């Protein structure tokens, strides 16, 4: 009897927790999403008391919106470049730190620190480094590599590169941890057998390590892409979308539409576009990488 009562009590407790979690999910994710979808079919403006239904006009306007196209192009270029760089560096770091010594465990913690820091804090720290009188330019001048300060955040190409480096630095902590977990699931016996057979380090990596960390790569690549596609805080602090809007991500553009231009309806439509695009890219990449897992 007591066992049945304890099980019933535990099940009721779990049901209560699940209900609370589901309620929070509905309130903070599903409901705002539905409200945003509804708003995307209107000309909602916070300065007007009422809003009218405009159908698909907001979505049609996006076809001719050059600012939207520019922000999408920048976001996609940044997402692809950062994802490739962060995952490549993450694999390299994971292989170097895949040891059990205390010193390596400390280095793992240090490697993960950028991931737990606020994006605003990271942006301010890197801004002080990358300004014309910042630490990077001062160091390069002192060692004689440059004669005058470089505007790392002042020209479109360098600003894109600088943001890419900063975001890659942030994401590398996450990718390193994912690949470390994947590497710890690779049987050591496979490496021993390969060494006996005379396999080189590169052959062991391409024929054992790389195929067996495929599930970790699927997770890491997908989350990296999604993270960069919705990036806002770091870019806002570093460049504010400048110079000349060359580093304005789609998230920054949505905020501008909503809170500067007061076009809530059109901003919601752009947000729906970004959501659909992110979902399509994430599903496509996940499907492609999962197929790779099966092939290996």
Automatic annotation (TrEMBL):
Spans traversing the lipid bilayer: 12-35, 72-97, 109-129, 158-182, 212-232, 266-289
Entry membrane topology: Multi-pass membrane protein
Location of the ABC transmembrane type-1 domain: 72-285
Protein's cellular compartments: Cell membrane
Cellular component GO terms held in the UniProt record: plasma membrane
CDD domains in UniProt: TM_PBP2
Keyword Transmembrane: yes
Domain of life assignment: Bacteria
Keyword Ubl conjugation attributed: no
Classification via PANTHER family: ABC TRANSPORTER PERMEASE PROTEIN, DIACETYLCHITOBIOSE UPTAKE SYSTEM PERMEASE PROTEIN NGCF
Similarity remark: Belongs to the binding-protein-dependent transport system permease family.
The name this protein goes by in its record: Carbohydrate ABC transporter membrane protein 1, CUT1 family
Organism in which the protein naturally occurs: Streptosporangium subroseum
Taxon lineage: Bacteria, Bacillati, Actinomycetota, Actinomycetes, Streptosporangiales
